[in-house]
Amino acid sequence: MTAKCLCKSVPDAEMRKINKGLPESETIDYLSDFFRVFGDSTRLRILYFLSRHEFCVADLAILTGMQQSAVSHQLKILRLHRLVRSRRDGTTIYYALDDLHVQKVFDIALEHVKESFK
Amino acid sequence: MTAKCLCKSVPDAEMRKINKGLPESETIDYLSDFFRVFGDSTRLRILYFLSRHEFCVADLAILTGMQQSAVSHQLKILRLHRLVRSRRDGTTIYYALDDLHVQKVFDIALEHVKESFK
DNA sequence: GCGATATATGAACACATATTCATATATAAG
DNA sequence: CTTATATATGAATATGTGTTCATATATCGC
């Protein structure tokens, strides 16, 4: 892959600099995975509820209106991406947010939504 | 769907408050759509390049190592979500970022990546 | 008008993913 | 040990999505 600009609109030196600045593919993949987790309405609702209080799986099923199994599957994804953590109390397992950035990500996305609706 | 907590860990009043605070489904869907756009490595690379300079489609194809058609399809998605805009100059069409939040979203995601790698 | 070039688009395909159903696991109470 | 309850998990299915290929559209120069 050459870094030469076909359109001649960008100087070669600038072109190489930009091309070099691209994060390595491992980072890009990690980032896209991270965003994809937020790209599902069920997971977003779960994250919202957990941003307000810890909840057990059954409660999250009621709150989201999903089946327990569906919630459990999604919680696993959130756990693997370290966005939530769980603690056991008897047979009940409580989930809570485990990432400081979740709230920030929410806020900025909401800003975007507001802008787009103008 | 009742708002009563099965686990009795959350007072009913608090439960109702949290349930009421959930953004309406239209907003949730809009948010998840927004995040899903970032959830693809090709689109992320395109957004990175456009965050540095405007580029024509052919250049983006070279930079990303993808076919022109693939890039064009992804640009359409980015356009529909108002993350990029385009201007025509003869037969060439230049794309540029069209959202102030893109950079912010990138930054926070990168923070998350750094934290997770600790 | 014609040909050349840049981009866009539709169909087809392969692959990913969210949900459901049935069932397994784990803990507690008796 | 048995039963009941909460959660997790595997298989199946339906739906969504990214890429490729072929082709259409749009603009420019002649």
> Cα-atom Rg of chain A, whole angstroms?
20 Å
Which fold name fills CATH's third level, the topology of chain A?
Arc Repressor Mutant, subunit A
CATH architecture label of chain A: Orthogonal Bundle
Number of helices of chain A: 6
CATH class of chain A: Mainly Alpha
Oligomer: homodimer
At the fourth level of CATH, the homologous superfamily of chain A is Winged helix-like DNA-binding domain superfamily/Winged helix DNA-binding domain
Mean of residue pLDDT values of chain A: 88
State the major sheet of chain A: 3 strands, antiparallel
Strand order of the largest sheet of chain A: 1-3-2
Strand content of chain A: 5-15%
Distance between the termini of chain A: 41 Å
Low-confidence stretches of chain A: none
Number of beta-strand segments of chain A: 3
The shape of chain A, in one word, is elongated
How many structurally independent domains of chain A? Answer: 1
- Quick one: which chains have the greatest interface? A-B, 63 and 63 residues
Helix/strand order of chain A? HHHEHHEEH
Helix content of chain A: 55-70%
Helix- and strand-based class of chain A? mainly alpha
Structure description:
The structure is a homodimer of 118-residue chains. By secondary structure, chain A is mainly alpha-helical. Chain A has one domain (25-117): Winged helix-like DNA-binding domain superfamily/Winged helix DNA-binding domain (Arc Repressor Mutant, subunit A, Orthogonal Bundle). The first copy, chain A, is 63% helix and 12% strand. The first copy, chain A, has six helices and three strands. Chain A has helices at 12-21, 25-38, 41-52, 57-64, 68-80, 101-117, and strands at 55-56, 84-89, 92-97. Chain A has a three-stranded antiparallel β-sheet. In chain A, helix 4 crosses helix 5 (68-80). The longest helix of chain A has 17 residues, at 101-117. Chain A is elongated, with a radius of gyration of 20 Å. At the A-B interface, helix 1, helix 2, helix 3, strand 1 and helix 4 of A face helix 1, helix 2, helix 3, strand 1 and helix 4 of B. Chain B binds a DNA duplex (30 and 30 nucleotides) through helix 5.
